[in-house]
Amino acid sequence: MIPNELPSHLVEIWNIESLRVLETIQPLPPHGFISVAGVARMMGWPWWRALMRHTDRPHILDCGAAAGLAACALREGQKWVVFDGPDIQAASLQALADICEARLLRTRPPAFALGMPPYDTYRRNQLAHYFNAEAPPDSPRPERTLSRTDGSSNDAAL
Length: 158
Prior knowledge:
Blueprint: E1 9-13, H1 16-21, E2 31-35, H2 39-43, H3 45-52, E3 59-62, H4 67-75, E4 80-82, H5 87-99, E5 103-105, E6 112-113, H6 121-131
Parallel strand pairs: 1-2, 1-6, 2-3, 3-4, 4-5
Helix pairs in contact: 4-5
């Protein structure tokens, strides 16, 4: 079955620690994962497959312009692949994606860039805000600061 829609929330994943930080966010709405741009060329498809075996969430491998990597991932069962290389290669990859009942994306969808660990309170709060959820109990929200002379708060920085 070809996957139809990605969840509205995607989180960029670097490693297993990136997956674990999500366990601290409750309630957690439907979400999915995407590899960091360009990391698939460096780490390869087996790395992504091994990382994603820890989750049942939808996940996207960003292959950039690496057609061979995208083809390998599709043949091995990856259901969502980003390929931003030449159109002629994309046409072949699209045919392969159809055969493999997968989706080939030509542009990278927007995602929350979690960054590299360690994940401090501030970063976990940003993630909770992205999901529009409450921060973990041990993670107080940042204080609002007054930065204008008229006394109004600068909420845009939060």
